[in-house]
Amino acid sequence: MSTPNSSPALARRLGTGDAVMIGLGSMIGAGIFAAFAPAAAAAGSGLLIGLALAALIAYCNATSSAQLAAQYPTSGGTYVYGRERLGAWPGFVAGWGFVIGKTASCAAMAMTFAAYAVPESWQRPAAVAAVLALAAINTRGVTRTAAATRVIVTVVLLVLAMVVLAGLTSGAPALDGVVSLRMGDGGWMAGGWYGVLQSAGLLFFAFAGYARIATMGEEVREPRRTIPRAILTALGLALAVYVLIAVALLVTVGAAGVAASPTPLAEVLRVRGWEWGVPLVRIGAAAAALGALLALIAGIGRTSLAMARQGDLPRWLATVHPRHQVPHRAEIALALVVSALVLTVDLREAIGFSSVGVLLYYLIANLAALTQEAPDRLYAKGWQVLGAIGCVVLVATLPPVSIAAAAVMFALGVGYRLLRLRRAR
Fold first, then answer.
1. Measured over all CA atoms, what is the biggest interatomic distance in the chain, rounded to whole angstroms?
2. Whole-prediction pTM value?
C-alpha cells in the first residue's frame, strides 16, 4: 500500500518485546481497577463467565487484527484494513469510531489518574498536565513511548501481584461464591444471561488494547512475524492477570462486595488487614491510567495519520516529524482536544458511546479478515465469524443512551466526509 510522497514512512524501531509492552500497557490499564465493580453488579460471580466470553471475543478479534496487520504493516489499523478489503466507507467508519471512542477514553484515563493521584480541587489541572506530558513523550519517538510503557507496566504488575497475594494467601477464601452455579445471590447466574453478557461487554475493553500494536504496524520490525506474536502474547498475559484478580476479588470480598465498592482492589487489602498497601493501590491505579493514556495517544495518532493521508481528516495531520519520525501534529492536536474535554466535561461516567465505536471497529476488522485468502490467511475463518457475531451481541447489551450518543457522533463523521467529497468533486 502506498502513501503520499509528502508523507514519509515511520521508522521500524519496535521489536516483539516493545510491541508486547505497548499492548499490555493498553490492556492492563485503569480498567482493571474499575471494570470489575460494574461487571459484578451486572452478573455477580457470573462475571467470571463474562470474563471468559470477553476473552474469547477478544481472541477472535485479535486473530483478525494480527492477520490483517501482517499483510498491511502500516499505520492506521482497521481504518487501513477496511479500506483495502471492503472499501473506503467501511474503512472510514472503523477509523472514525476508533478516533472518537478512544479520544473520549483518553479524557477518562486522564481523569482517572487525577482522581487517584491528587485532591479533587487539583484533578482537572493534573489531568491536563498528564495529557500534555505524555503527548510530549510520544512526540519524542516511539522508542520513548515503549520505554515509558515498560516502566509503568512493571509498577502496575507489582501492585496487582500484591493484591493477588493478599487475596489468595491471607485468611480463609470464600470459595462458595466462585464455584456456585445457582441462580440466587452470589451464584454464577445471579444476573441471568443478560447480566453475564453485559458483564462481558464491560470487561471486553480490558482486552481491546492489542489493537494498539496493529495501529503501530509501520513501526514494528519484521511485522509479519512480530505483530501476530506480540498481539497474542499480550492478550494471553493480560487474560492471566485478569483471571487472578477476578478470583482474588471474589474469594475475598464476594460479588456483592465488589459491586458495592468504588475501589474493590483496595478493599481486598482492607479485608485481609493489609492497610499499609492501600496507598500502593492508589499509586498502581494512577500508573495504570497513565500507561493506558500513553498507549492511547500513540494509537490514535497513528490512526489519525492514516486517515489524514487519505483526506478523511485534514491533511496537515499527516506530517511526520523529520527527526523523531512520529506523527507529531496528530498527537499535538489530540492532546489539545483531550485537554479541552478534561476541562469542560466529566467523562468518567459518560463514555459509553466509545464502547459502540470500538466494537464497530472490531466488527469491520473481522469482516475485512474474512475476505483474506492464502497465503495471507493465518487463522481459520470461523474465528472471524465468531468475532463478528460477538461484537454485534455486545453492542446490543450496551445502554440505549450510549448507542444514541454514538449514532450522533457517527452521523457527524459521515456528514463531514460527505461534505469533503462533495467539495472535492
1. 71
2. 0.79
Q: Which amino acid is at 289?
A: A
Contact yes or no for 267/129 (Cβ under 8 A) = no
For the record, the C-alpha cell of 39 comes out as 461487571
Contact 295, 22 (CB under 8 A): yes
Q: How far apart are CA 87 and CA 65, in angstroms?
A: 17
pLDDT tens across 197-223, in order?
888 888 886 777 666 666 666 667 777
Cell of 351: 463514555
Length of the chain measured in residues:
425
Tens digits of residue pLDDT in 365-405: 999 999 998 888 988 999 999 999 999 998 888 778 888 88
Torsion of CA 216, 77, 53, 372, to 10 degrees: -120
Is the previous residue joined to 375 through a cis bond, with omega within 30 degrees of 0?
yes
**Cell numbers placing 33:** 481497577
Chain mean position to CA 382: 24
139-to-53, 322, 332 alpha-carbon distances in Å:
37, 11, 8
Alpha carbons 210 and 58: distance in angstroms, whole number: 9
Q: What is the DSSP string of 167-196?
A: HHHSS---THHHH---SSTTSTTTTHHHHH
DSSP H or E stretch at residue 231: helix 223-252
Locate the domains of the chain by residue range. 16-424
| The domain over range 16-424 is classified in CATH as 1.20.1740.10 | yes
**CB distance 82 to 90 below 8 Å:** yes
Strand, helix or coil for residue 424 = helix
